[in-house]
Amino acid sequence: MKLLVAAMASELAAFPEQLEGFDRLVTGEGKMQATYALTRALTEREYTEVVVVGTAGGIDPELPAAVHEIGSALQHDVFDLEGVPGQHVSLPARVTTGRDGVLIATGDSFVGDAGITAVIRPSGAGLVDMETYAYIWVAQQFGVPIRAFRAISDRAEDGALVDFRAAIARCSEQLREVIRQEYGV
After folding, report:
1. Is the overall model pTM greater than 0.90, yes or no?
2. Which of 163, 178, 180 is nearest to 110 (CA)?
3. d(CA 175, CA 167)
4. DSSP output for 5-46
């Protein structure tokens, strides 16, 4: 059995309630809720794979507004003791799914400001979100393979929240099609 994970129920709107071979988990937004909910789920049952679907802001203007598989994640909102951005005092700077894909920058606030996007962009991240780093880190702690797919909902700059709200249904449809193609369900 695989575990289909999303932060928000609206990201799963295009998915059937029951998807053959998958349990379903909606964690809530942000790193803390993602960590807590996924940890509980992986403690309660063994899964062969965690499959994350959701939305992300696109900060690389070259990335098309489509679904992208995530290869690795960093935290854009942490600093180590020397004040180095993206470096946590005790967690790895980057976590990886073990697959080829886009680098995503995870932080606990919705990025909808060109100034913040400009600060994150030099990290090399193509996308921003609020949960992927946590999902990957938790799956690694349990030794469970993980894949993550993120649909670009907005460009993470001024007006992004309005764009995000308008795009959520389109993103869910795109994500549903990717899961159909990748898993045959």
Report:
1. yes
2. 163
3. 12
4. EESSGGGGTTS-SSBTTEEEEE--SSHHHHHHHHHHHHHHS-
